[in-house]
Specification:
The protein is mainly alpha-helical. It has a domain of 114 residues: Tetratricopeptide repeat domain (Serine Threonine Protein Phosphatase 5, Tetratricopeptide repeat). 65% of the residues lie in helices and 2% in strands. It has a two-stranded antiparallel sheet with strand order 1-2. Strand 1 and strand 2 form a beta hairpin. Helix 2 packs across helix 10, helix 4 runs parallel beside helix 6 and helix 6 runs parallel beside helix 8.
Length: 194
């Protein structure tokens, strides 16, 4: 689950650009345990946009996972994997739907805060900011120390809802709760950029 948290280590310049509205497709923190490896561009399957090698692998896994789900549609882990691969291949609605099916099967699963956060990031990508915030808040109810959901909540407040006071409040809480965490370092950079 830490793999995706590494994404929050982006530089201050990118943060500033994001906060100015240039990085609307960048995800600063996600949590569900799959990686976004840097790779040279490669051809994607027919009908799909060009993708990195990691995305080509994700497209292959999507087909295999969908076949497995035809045999066992209640496979929680397969649904989460499908959501992750849709996330990685920038298919937000399909990702939201796969995560929703997994959460419907086991809403109190220990992975639920991470899944809710990833699903919230996808809602943000779909410009459904209210649902994104609801997901981040639900993740926080399940795990009051879930820093990735808090960090993402602040991002939505600051960049999409132009509520800088709410963003500062959330980010200040992260810094207070876990001052040495990567999320706290990122929150400090975000607050400086506001």
């Amino acid at each position: 689950m830490e793999n995706r948290n590494i994404l929050i280590g982006l530089g201050t310049g990118l943060v500033a650009g994001f906060l100015l509205g240039y990085g609307t497709g960048v995800y600063f923190t996600t949590t569900s345990g799959h990686t976004h490896p840097p790779a040279p561009a490669a051809a994607a399957p027919a009908g799909m946009p060009p993708a990195g090698m990691g995305q080509v692998d994700a497209f292959s896994r999507i087909a295999a996972t969908k076949a497995a789900l035809e045999r066992n549609p209640k496979d929680f882990d397969a649904l989460v994997m499908l959501g992750n691969d849709y996330f990685d291949t920038h298919q937000p609605q399909l990702s939201v739907d796969a995560y929703a099916k997994a959460l419907a099967l086991d809403p109190k699963n220990p992975k639920a805060p991470d899944i809710l956060t990833d699903q919230g990031v996808m809602y943000r990508e779909l410009k459904d900011y209210d649902k994104a915030l609801a997901n981040f808040k639900q993740a926080g109810k399940l795990d009051p120390n879930h820093l990735p959901s808090m960090l993402n909540m602040g991002i939505v407040y600051a960049t999409n809802l132009n509520d800088k006071a709410a963003a500062r409040k959330v980010w200040a809480k992260i810094i207070e709760m876990a001052p040495d965490s990567p999320q706290a370092q990122q929150a400090k950079q975000f607050m400086t950029s506001l």
